[in-house]
Design a protein that fits this description.
heterodimer, A: alpha+beta, BirA Bifunctional Protein, domain 2, 2 domains, 7-stranded mixed sheet, 12 helices, 41% helix, B: alpha+beta, Phenylalanyl-tRNA Synthetase, Chain B, domain 1, 6 domains
Amino acid sequence: MKEKIDRLKERALAAIADTHIVKALNELKVSFLGKNGEITGLLKGMKDVPPEEKPAIGKLVNGLRAEIEEAIANRERLLKEKETAARLESEAIDVTLPGKAVARGGLHPVELVKNQLIEAFLPFGFDVYEGPEVELDYYNFKQLNIPDDHPARDMQDTFYITDSILLRTQTSAGQIRWMEKEKPPIRILSPGRVYRSDYDATHSPMFHQMEGLVVDKGITLCDLKGVLEEVCKKVFDPGVKTRLRPSYFPFTEPSVEIDVSCSECGGKGCSLCKGTGWIEILGAGMVNRVVLENCGIDPDVYTGFAFGVGLERIAMLKYGIPDIRYLFDNDIRFLKQF
Amino acid sequence: MKLPLSWLAEYVDVTGVSVAELESGLFYCGLEVEEIIHTAEKINKIVFCKILTVAKHPNADKLSVCTVDAGQYGILQIVTAATNVFEGAIVPVAVDGATLNNGETIKKGKLRGEVSMGMFCSGEELGINDTWYDGASVNGILIFREEYPLGEEVKKHLELEDYIFDISVTANRPDCQSIIGLAREIAAVLKRPFKMPSLEYAAEGGKTSDKVKVTVSAPDLCPRYTANYVADIKIGPSPLWLRRRLFRMGLNSINNIVDITNYVLLEIGQPMHAFDYRYLRGAEINVRRAKEGEKITTLDTKEFTLGPSNLVISDREGPVALAGIMGGLNSEIKLDTTEIVFEAAEFKRDNVRKTSRTLGQRSDSSAIFEKGTDAYSAETGMKRALSLVCQLGAGKIYAGMTDVNSEDMSPKTLEFTADQINGLLGITVPSSEMTAILQSLGFAVNESKGNFKVIVPPYREDVAGFPDIAEEVIREYGYDHINCTLFEHSANKGGGLTPSQNLDAAIKAHLVACGYYQTITYSFVSDKFFEPYGLDPASAVKLKNPLGEDFSLMRTSLVPSLVNVVLKNINKNNNDGKFFESSVIYIPKALPLDELPEERKTICLAAYGEGEDFFTVKGVIDEMFACVRCTGEVRYTPADVAYLHPGRSAFIDIDGKRVGYLGELNPVLGEKLGIDRRVYVAELDFVTIESFVNEKISFRPIAKYPSVERDLALLADAAITNAQITDCIKSSGVKNMESVRLFDVYNGEHLPKGKKSMAYRIRFTAHDRTLSVTDVEKYVEKILKELGDKLGITIR
C-alpha cells in the first residue's frame, strides 16, 4: 500500500509539473482528487489494509492529498500568471490610432466675448438687462438727447418700421428703460442686437453691443477709467493699459474714446494697432445731465458713467478675425475654432 | 477736414513745432488726424533747365532730340515726344535718378538709338495744374513763364512741399470745419496766440439797401441772412497765394469772385454765394419755401422740381438758388459780370440735409450746413469776403450790409464752481489752471474762490453747461491725469444674473455639450424665407427702408435661417453639422404696428449628417428638459407643420402646453431649396420652458431592496404607438413599478401580417421588502391583461 502511495505521489507530481494549461490541470485535479479520482480509489483500498496499519496509511493518504492539492494550486497560480501575461501581450493596441469622436459643440465667438465681459463686470455689482430690439424712437433717440435733426436719425442710417418705431441702433436705448423703473444705485449691462444700415468688411447691418450704465452719488470719470481698466485686464491681458481721449456722444458729457494698449506688440506699434500701440475699443462718458433729467433722476444729486462696446469688434480683435462677415456666415469650420 | 500746415501757419506761429507734435496735440484735444499727406514728398531731382537746341530725331518722326543747360547737371541731351518745346524755353527736367510725384523713377537711356539723359516733365508729373501755376495744365511739357536758376530743384522754387492734416471732427464741433476753427484749437494746445484773418474793408459806394430788398419769409429755416451789394466788379484771375490755398484743399481756381466764396467757405467755414445782380429780377431777394412744382436749374445744369419742404432764394419771378446747396444757373457769375450780391446765411441743417438727400444734390456748402453753422459765422464770412474783395481790388463795396437776423445774439454766460468740475472728473484741477485753459479757448473768465462766471465764445454753441466746461478743461489739462478708482465715493451694491438669464446659459451649455454649435443669423430675412415654408410674409413686421429685399422682414421663425445655415454648409462640402440659435422672433400684435411687437425668445436646432435622425434630436431635447429641471410630463404627438415631413414630425407639449415641435424637414421643401439630404429641425419657446423649470432640488430615498426586471416581447397591431403601450402599462395600477422602457421594435419576418413586436423592460422596486417571484408574476399578469383588454396585445 505504501508503495502504491509513493508511486501515485511520484506520478501525480510529475504529471502536475508537466501540465501547461489550466484546463488540463483541472482535468488532473479531477483524476487525482475527484469523487472517482485516484486518491478516492486509494481510500477505497483501505478496507484491505490491516486495522493496525490503517491510522498510519490514512495519514499517508491524507498527506498525499494535501501535497497534490498544494502542487496543483501552485501550478495553477503559475499557469494563470503566464496565461494573463500572454493575454495582456496579445491584447496590445496601437495607442496612436485616432480616439473615438465625442460630439463637441461650441458657443459663437460673439457669445464668448459677451460672457467674458459679463463675467468681468459682475463682481462690481452689475445687473444684466436686455431691452427690446424693436424700439420706440423715444427710447432710441429722444430720451438720449439725440435731437430731431441729428443725422443719426436719417433713413440711411436707421431702419424704420413706422415713423416712431425702429430697430434700435444702440443698446443705449436699454439704459433709459432701466432708469425709468429703477432708482440709483444703478449698475447695469445691457447686451444685445443692434441694427444700422451699413454693410462692408467691418460693418454688418446687424451687430451686437453691450451697454454699461452706472448712476449713483459721487461717480466720477476716474471710476469709469478704473472699472473699465479692470475689465480690460480680465478680457484682454493682465498687463493691459487704458487711455482716454476726447470724443462726442449726445448722451454723455464729457465723452471719451477708450483705447487699450495693443496686446499684440505691447504698445510698440504693429500692424494690428496700425503702428500706434493703441487700439480703440469703446466709447464712453459721463451721463449727460439731460439724460438723467429725462429719466427723473436729479443730476445735481447723482452722476453716472455709461459706455457702449461693439462685441463683434472685440471678437475680431481678440481672435484676429479679418472680416465681420465670417461672424454671420456660420460655416462650421469657422464655428469649430472657438 | 483738411488743414494745410502752410495755411495754418498764417494764424498760429508753428515755428519749432514738428508735424508729429502737432498731430499728437490735435489727437489729445479730440481732433484725430486720420492721415498726413506730405505733398511733393517723392519729387526729387526735377530741376530747371533751358532748352538750347531742338532737332528732329534721326530715327523717329514723332520724337525730338534737345540739348539743355541744366546748371550743375551740365549740358544734357534729352529725347522728348512733346511738341510744345522750343529753343530758349525754361522747362522742368527729371535728370538721371529723379523721382516723379507719383513715385516713378527716371533713368538715363536710349530712345530709338539716341541717348536721353533724363525726361522733360509736365505739370501733372509735378502734381500740379493751372491753379498752382499758369500753364501747368497744358497737354505737353510745362513751360515756365519766368527765369529760374538752372539746375535747382523745381519743388523748392514752386513751393510744392507741404503737410496736409486730414482731421476727423466730431459732430459737436461744426466750428472746427474751417481753417480758423482748427487754428484756434491748435493755438490753445500750443499755448500760442491765434491771429484772426482781416475782416476790414472800405465801403465806398452807396448803400446795399438801395440796391436790393431782402425778405426772409421762412425765418424758421433761415434764422440769419446777410447780403451785400458790390459794384464795378472786375472778373479776372485770383492772385497766386489764394489760388494755391484752394489747390491744397482740392479746389480749382475759377475766377476772383467765385474763388473768394470758396476761400471763405474753407477759411471761415461759412458757405457764400454770389449772384449776378443783372439777373436778380426786381432787385429782390426772398428766402422762402418753394411752391409746389416750382422748378430750378442749378449751376451744374441739373433741373429739379421743388415743393414746400425745399427752401429757395427767390427773386421777384422765381428761384435763383437752392438755399444752402447750390446757386441757380440763371444768376451765375459770368465773365462780363459787373455787379454782384454776396449772400452769407445760416440755413437750418436739418432742412438742408433733407433737401440735399431727397433731391440727390450735394455741394461743399450743403456739407457744411448739414453739420451746422452758428449765428455769427454769416456775418464773419460776409466781412471776410468783402475784405478779400478790397484786398484783391475786385470791386466797389457798398455800405450797410443787409442783415435779417432772428437769432438771439446775446452772449452766453455760464456759472459753475471748480468743485462741480472736479466732482465730475474725480481729480483736482486747480482753479488757476481752469482759468488759463478756458481763456486759451476764447472764454472770458471771471473767477473768485473757485466760483466761475464765464462768457462762452460765440462759435461754441456746443458749450451749454458745466459738464461741457469739464470736457474743455480735461482735454486741455490732459486725460492722462485721470486716475483709476473703483467707486470710491459711492455705495456698494449686489448684482448678478437673473434665473431667466441663468436658464438661457444652461440651455446653451447643454446644447454645446450635445455637440451643437451656436450660430448667429440676421433677424431680418427675405420674402423667400417665408413662402416655401408656408409662412405668411404679411404677418411679419416689415422695414420701411431695408438694405435690400433680402433683409426686409423681421422673422417669425428661426427655422428658415437655420436651414439656410445647413444649406450653406452643405454647399461648402461640410458633411455634417449640428447648429442652434437662441434669439427672438418678432410677433406683431397688430399690423401696421401701433405698439412694439412681442419679441419671443426661441431656441432652434438643426442637424444633418451621418448618425443624425429624428430620435437623436429628440434625445437632445429630452435631455435638455431634464438638464434645466423642467418638471411636468413631456409628450410628443404627430404634428402637421407644413415644412416638416408629415410622418416624421411631432409637437412637443409639457403638461398639455405646447413648447414647440421637431421633425425632419419636408423632403419636398428640401428639394426646392436644393438640399439633397435629410435635415432635422426643432423650434422651442423659451418662456414656456421657463414656466416649467423648478430649480428646487429635493432628495429622493434610494431603494434598500433589490429591483427586479422583466422583459416582455409584445405583439401589437402596427398602428399602435409606443406612447399607447407605455401609457397602458403605467396606468395598469400595478404597484412598485419603477420604470418602463422600450428596448426593441421588430417589424420583420415571422410575424403575423399587420403586427409588430415591441419589447419592454419593466423594473419593479419596493422600498419596504424584497419582491418575491410571485409578486412579480402577479404584476406581469395584470399588465398583460390590461394590454390585452385595451389594445388587443398579446405576448409573443
